[in-house]
Amino acid sequence: MRFKLTQPRFLAHLLALLLVWTASASAAPAGSGSPRPRMAPKATPSKSPTTKSSKRKPSRIVRGVPTYADSAADDTVEYDDPVVRDAAVSALGRYNGSVVAIDPNTGRLLAVVNQKLAFSDGFIPCSTIKPVIGLAALEQNVITRDTMLRVSRRSYMNLTEAMAHSNNPFFEELGRRMGFSTVQRFARLVGLGELAGYNIPEEHPGALPLEPPRRGGVARMSSFGEGIQITPLQLGALATAVANGGTLYYLQYPRTEDERQSFMPRVKRKLNIEPLLPELREGMLAAVLYGTGHSSYDPDGDLALGKTGTCSDMKSRLGWFVSYTDWMRPRIVLVVLLRGNSRRVKGGTAAEVAGRMYRYLHARNYFARNVEPVEAVDNSFFTGSRPD
């Protein structure tokens, strides 16, 4: 997708990153002796777990899972918001995948397309694990917004650029600096490895490794999510906390008229991540404006933020995109997961699906209602009891 710089909304969105670019261009790595390191717009990512271990093309390795399918064929549709579901089904089109839409202010599931896939055991998160690692590194004071890390022989990046371009060496270094126990602990605190929903019997809890993965250790765990199994619901619940300022809701899926009428949000726990979120959000905004998620950009709609993920498991290629809109008043969280046997299955394609969905909803004035901003959370980092 090409963007015209004459578009007023696009120019306005770029202004939000002007300060970040200025700081990135003027910052220098500690002890480098260079007043202004040369910035690389994009570093070459590491190969995915499957492609690294085989000389054959991914499409031949994973030929058992089709790229195209009728993803909504077996769904029960009466639980979903009809407008949101129509948008999701239309945007997904012929792709084999799932779309989960959530209200970030309540944790209510608005639509679940391909419910069998959404409620499955989970998949490797690919690069959608990077926001978790970035938050952990900020919370541990391993980095600040201005920290520049070496990502290649002559290139350095800060968190914003690393998020925008999904730079693997940057997040691998963060993982090494924090260590496995810190990464694992933080991942569990933000909801990975446990059920995200409340009274959703089909849901599975995913998995977190109990020790560093044999392939790549904590470094690969921090860049690709090696050893982690994450579900679309878990990724969506995490995104709601990023969107609303730190409240991790139980996801609820009302299925009867009585449940819909008596619906009340249920807080799982509150995270004191509000002071850390501006740095993370800048990277997710950059990903949409000019990075790996640029195909989700809607020049006529609300400002969205997002993160892509692309890799393979033992059965298929995976393409993730987690996103929410908008920056100041969160309206909706979207999680798109694609599976298949072709190179079309990637995070950029999942972002394209989300972009079509945003445009569909905007055209039907879905976001026209007034939504008040969610208040910042200022309690301790972790409150409430740990889940069993």
Structure description:
This protein has helices spanning about 10-15, 20-25, 50, 60, 80-90, 115-120, 130-140, 160-165, 170-180, 180-190, 215-225, 230-245, 255-260, 275-290, 345-365, and strands spanning about 95-100, 110-115, 150, 155, 245-250, 265-270, 305-310, 315-325, 330-340. With about 400 residues, it is of the alpha+beta class. The chain has one domain (about 60-365): Beta-lactamase (3-Layer(aba) Sandwich), CATH 3.40.710.10. It has a five-stranded antiparallel β-sheet, with helices on both faces. A hairpin with a 6-residue loop joins strand 8 and strand 9. Helix 7 (about 130-140) packs across helix 9 and helix 8 (about 160-165) runs parallel beside helix 14. The longest helix has 17 residues, at about 345-365. The chain is globular. The N and C termini lie far apart (about 45 Å). About 50% of the residues are buried.
How is the secondary structure organized here?
Elements: H1 8-15, H2 18-26, H3 49-52, H4 58-61, H5 82-92, E1 97-102, E2 109-113, H6 115-118, H7 130-139, E3 149-150, E4 156-157, H8 159-165, H9 168-178, H10 180-189, H11 217-223, H12 232-244, E5 247-249, H13 257-261, E6 267-270, H14 277-289, E7 304-312, E8 317-325, E9 332-340, H15 347-363
Antiparallel strand pairs: 1-2, 1-9, 3-4, 5-6, 7-8, 8-9
Helix pairs in contact: 5-15, 7-9, 8-14, 9-11
